[in-house]
Amino acid sequence: MTNNRNIGQAISVNVVDLSKSFGSEKVLKNINFNVTPGEIFVIMGPSGAGKSIMLKHIIGLLRPDTGKVLLNEMDVIERKTVEQNVIAMVFQEGALFNSLNVFDNLALYLREHRRYNKNNIRTKVTHALEMLSLGNAIDKFPPELSGGMRKRVAIARALVMEPQLLLYDEPTSELDPTMGATISEIIATVRNETQVTSIVVSHDRDLALTISDRVALMMAGEIIEINTPENLTKSKDPRVQSFLNPKINIDQPRFRQKEENK
Fold it and tell me: C-alpha distances in angstroms, 153 versus 16, 142, 247?
C-alpha cells in the first residue's frame, strides 16, 4: 500500500467523564481516556464489561447521559458531516451486504459519496483487496466466504474510506487462533502503513498484548487500568492479574461431580 496519509491526518480521541445507563443499569461509569493520533488503543475486558457500548459512543451512535467524546477536540455528537472526521468501523460480524458481491460491498461508500469515477473506484477497491490477499474473492458473495475472509473484507471496506479513525469491534471473535493472529497482524500493518488512529475492542489478550501501544482494561463499566502491554502484565492490581492469568478451580462442585461420575 502506498503511504498516502501522514500522522497529521490521523485524529485524537478524548473521552471525558462519560457515563451511560439503560434504565436502572449503569453500563458506563465515569469513563476517561485519550488516544493520540496514529495510536493503536485496545479496550480489553470480559463480555458484558461495556466495551461495545463504549465503541458506539465513540462513533456517535449513542448519546451519553453525562460526559462527552471529542474527536480532534470536536464533540462527536456535534459533528456536522462525516467528512469533518472520516470514521470507519469494522463490525464484529462484518456487516457485509449478502446481496452484493465483494467488489460492490467495498465500492458502495465511494459511489454514494461520489468521491471517485468508475475507473478509480475499481482501482481503489482492487488495491485494498490485494493488500489483504483477497484479490480472488472480488466477485464472490459474503455467504461464499469463510469467517476469516469476511473479517478481511470488512477491513478492506473500511480502508477504501481512507479513514482518520478506524474502530474494530471484536475483530478476532469466532476465529481459530491462526486466523486470529493473522487479523491481529493485519490491524498492525494497516496502522503502520496508513498511520490511522485505531481503537480495538476485544476480549482477546493475545491481540491486546501483541499489537497495542496501550491497553485499557474495562470491567463492569469502569476502566480499571490503562497501560502499555508490558507494564499491564506487571500490574499489582489483582483484577488485572485475574483477567490476564485466569485459573480454573478444580475443587468447585461441578468439577468434583465430573470426576465422581468417571
Answer: 33, 9, 36
